[in-house]
């Protein structure tokens, strides 16, 4: 419009969106307290390994904060935009050199936090909002509203069938009054997500050693442990709002006086229906029926069997180490370049990588709420691990110059994971320890590349 881009107009064409902003800071430095000291330099230059070490010692410190903009606008079950994910990190350590600079080592300790990181709430919240609140409680409210509109709930051929536009609008309005939410609440508020906080800490060691100009070595090792906290707090907040509504729902309070007899009835197809109270109700929805093959003979039983285990799984991981993370890992890499003789311009090398075992699941235990012998929730005191992994890579390359040394050509063959024959690796298990998920492990790969440098 008049040469001005209409940002607000454009944004109205999108679905819900967030605008997140913030300032980030990074601070870091290396202090070498003994550098350029006359006596230390003199003794180090005379060949003293100890004073070479002292002269090179450096103390390191880094600190930063950040925020991570999520990929899409997301809300909690109240429809409130989720808070901005933010993080802080800091590390400190020391470094030094030996053998006249041929060996360099660094040791570092770190700690990082990530608050309000976005996470898919999975089946715990979706079963709360969809299975319980929508498919059951809204249907409970809808059934009562249809009865109050004069439809005979015993006649399944006419009950709620062939509604006019006006009747549909009336039905949705009356249902919403009992439900306590707008009829299309969950469709309208946006994408429901959850947050959690993570804290990682550990240490890293790095050693670079070059015995000669054409022989390099690098060793790295690390330890890291990440733990989650504040898991599913959005579930707790929404359950605290909805549970009192569900608990207080009584058919007698909603049915008009002339329809009180329909707090319980049997349909003409022989299905018993109970609307006396919501948690004890059944019959109006296929998921809760007397004689149900899965034993879901009331909303309470359905909740205990469908929602409680999923909630317990997520909450049990609160304070536990992140699944799939390997606490320890290390690697050794070396490369040798031939500068003379029969193998001049050839290089050979390899790496050996090792990583610790990882948690891929937990043994199960009976649900303490509903009891019984079934393994219904995870026992986080009994983790199940996969095996530690070792990987071997090797390579060989040839380098030469072409066209009067104007172009440098390098041909390299890499064998990735040279000792791996391929197969399936278990990455998830059931409560009895049996596998329920795998990933394909690729066999060794041969990669041939040619690069030209001008």
Describe the model:
There is one protein chain. The chain has 454 residues and is an alpha+beta fold. It has helices spanning 7-11, 38-45, 49-56, 122-148, 165-179, 185-188, 233-248, 251-254, 299-306, 308-316; strands at residues 26-31, 58-67, 86-98, 103-119, 194-212, 215-229, 264-266, 272-274, 328-337, 346-355, 359-365, 377-385, 389-402, 407-416, 423-429, 435-441, 445-453. The protein contains ten helices and 17 strands. The model has no long low-confidence stretch (mean pLDDT 91).
Helix-strand layout with pairing:
Layout: H1 7-11, E1 26-31, H2 38-45, H3 49-56, E2 58-67, E3 86-98, E4 103-119, H4 122-148, H5 165-179, H6 185-188, E5 194-212, E6 215-229, H7 233-248, H8 251-254, E7 264-266, E8 272-274, H9 299-306, H10 308-316, E9 328-337, E10 346-355, E11 359-365, E12 377-385, E13 389-402, E14 407-416, E15 423-429, E16 435-441, E17 445-453
Antiparallel strand pairs: 1-2, 2-3, 3-4, 4-5, 5-6, 6-9, 7-8, 9-10, 10-13, 11-12, 13-14, 14-17, 15-16
Main sheet: strands, sense, barrel: 11 strands, antiparallel
- Strand percent estimate: 35-45%
Q: Count every helix, treating DSSP H or I runs of 4 or more residues as helices.
A: 10
What general form does the structure show? elongated
Nearest-integer average pLDDT: 91
Radius of gyration: 33 Å
Oligomer classification: single chain
């Amino acid at each position: 419009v008049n040469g001005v881009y209409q940002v607000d107009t454009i944004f109205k064409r999108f679905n819900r969106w967030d605008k997140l902003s913030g300032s980030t800071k990074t601070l870091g430095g290396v202090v070498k307290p003994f550098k350029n000291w006359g006596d230390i330099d003199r003794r180090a230059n005379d060949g003293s390994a100890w004073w070479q070490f002292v002269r090179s010692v450096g103390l390191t410190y880094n600190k930063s904060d950040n925020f991570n903009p999520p990929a899409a606008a997301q809300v909690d079950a109240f429809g409130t935009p989720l808070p901005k994910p933010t993080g802080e990190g800091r590390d400190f350590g020391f470094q030094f050199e030996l053998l006249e600079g041929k060996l360099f080592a660094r040791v570092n300790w770190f700690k990082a936090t990530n608050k309000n990181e976005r996470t898919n709430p999975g089946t715990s919240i979706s079963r709360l909002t969809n299975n319980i609140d929508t498919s059951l409680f809204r249907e409970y409210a809808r059934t009562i509203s249809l009865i109050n509109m004069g439809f005979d709930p015993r006649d399944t051929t006419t009950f709620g069938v062939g509604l006019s536009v006006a009747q549909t609008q009336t039905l949705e309005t009356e249902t919403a009054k009992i439900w306590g939410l707008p009829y299309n609440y969950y469709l309208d508020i946006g994408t429901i997500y959850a947050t959690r906080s993570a804290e990682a800490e550990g240490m890293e060691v790095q050693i670079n050693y070059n015995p000669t100009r054409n022989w390099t070595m690098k060793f790295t090792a690390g330890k890291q442990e990440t733990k989650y906290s504040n898991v599913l707090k959005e579930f707790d907040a929404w359950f605290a709002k909805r549970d009192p509504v569900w608990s207080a729902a009584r058919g007698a309070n909603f049915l008009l006086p002339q329809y009180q007899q329909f707090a319980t009835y049997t349909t003409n197809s022989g299905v018993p229906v109970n609307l006396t109270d919501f948690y004890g109700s059944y019959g109006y929805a296929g998921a809760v029926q007397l004689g149900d093959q899965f034993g879901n003979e009331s909303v309470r039983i359905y909740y205990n069997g469908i929602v409680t285990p999923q909630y317990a799984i997520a909450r049990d991981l609160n304070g536990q180490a992140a699944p799939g993370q390997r606490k320890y890992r290390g690697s050794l890499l070396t490369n040798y370049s031939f500068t003379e003789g029969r193998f001049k311009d050839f290089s050979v090398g390899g790496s050996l990588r090792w990583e610790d075992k990882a948690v891929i699941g937990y043994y199960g235990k009976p649900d303490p709420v509903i009891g019984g012998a079934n393994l219904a929730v995870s026992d986080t005191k009994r983790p199940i691990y996969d095996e530690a992994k070792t990987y071997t890579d090797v390579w060989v390359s040839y380098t030469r110059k072409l066209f009067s040394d104007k172009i440098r050509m390098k041909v390299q063959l890499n064998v990735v994971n040279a000792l791996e024959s391929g197969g399936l690796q278990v990455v998830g298990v059931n409560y009895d320890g049996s596998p329920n998920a795998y990933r394909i492990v690729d066999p060794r790969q041969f990669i041939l590349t040619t690069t030209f440098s001008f």
